[in-house]
């Protein structure tokens, strides 16, 4: 876990942490993976979305591989992990994109509901990666800690999109931005977490998740204990880095406040293609249809 004393050395950012092998590549799989029962249910084989799903991915491996992505980036073999005992991926016709929920009688059994209608609307060149990316994001929700349900939802969603990013499923419309709030969620927060991972070293986001295992979330102490800085200072530093990157490469696309840090503007819509919360209409997706049209779905 990074300390204030070690910050100067840790802040020497790698040119591209994503381009080099991770320590996790050399570790054995977490023993808990084999204990989780993984199921796939396609509600209606006659619908176009179901056919597209089965034609785009290996149905026998897609759920297992998503679990492996989550464990690779959030845990090491000795980590304690949530007690999830089964995950069922359900492909069915529904509004929205996807959501993760627990079964009523036992929260250790999770269900990921993924819209067949959404799948059928994804352009053919993006279909496989988008399916894998959405499932990866939702699978994180089956196995991440949430500070006893007190963590900001934006941090929870940001970690899910960070795992998606690290797993190689970044959609082309994702952009690094430092306007609005750090915990706006999804890729907005996911890229911020990637900045922290590069600044403080490999395992940083894993430490953030681990810190949310047993304790309630208290914003000031949470970030200072981990990094020696308040999250608003870290967010400001992230904005400055984006501004510096833009100066070096004028073609870089990002958004920052005039001071190069976080502004007070709230973005009205999220641009990610991930999940719709099961119990509240949060969110949305931006997709390219087979006809080449861009649609933004908000629920």
Elements, N to C (H/E): HEHHEEEHHHEHHHHEEE
Oligomerization state:
single chain
DSSP helix fraction: 25-40%
Strand order of the largest sheet: 1-2-4-3
Largest beta-sheet details: 4 strands, mixed
State the low-pLDDT regions, or none.
1-23, 256-290, 294-299
Strand content: 5-15%
Number of extended strands: 8
Structure description:
This protein has helices spanning 7-10, 48-56, 62-74, 116-121, 127-143, 153-166, 186-200, 204-211, 219-227, 231-248; strands at 37-42, 86-92, 98-103, 106-115, 176-177, 254-255, 284-288, 294-298. 40% of the residues are buried. It has 10 helices and 8 strands. The N and C termini lie far apart (38 Å). With 299 residues, it is an alpha/beta fold. Helix 5 (127-143) crosses helix 6 (153-166) and helix 6 (153-166) crosses helix 7 (186-200). The strands form 3 sheets. It has a 4-stranded mixed β-sheet with strand order 1-2-4-3. It has a two-stranded parallel sheet with strand order 5-6. Strands 7-8 form a two-stranded antiparallel ribbon.
Summed up:
The chain is 38% helix and 14% strand. With 299 residues, the protein is α/β, with parallel strands linked by helices. Strands 1-2-4-3 form a four-stranded mixed β-sheet. The chain has a two-stranded parallel ribbon with strand order 5-6. A two-stranded antiparallel ribbon has the order 7-8.
Key terms for this structure?
8 strands; alpha/beta; globular
What's the structural blueprint in terms of helices and strands?
Layout: H1 7-10, E1 37-42, H2 48-56, H3 62-74, E2 86-92, E3 98-103, E4 106-115, H4 116-121, H5 127-143, H6 153-166, E5 176-177, H7 186-200, H8 204-211, H9 219-227, H10 231-248, E6 254-255, E7 284-288, E8 294-298
Parallel strand pairs: 1-2, 2-4, 5-6
Antiparallel strand pairs: 3-4, 7-8
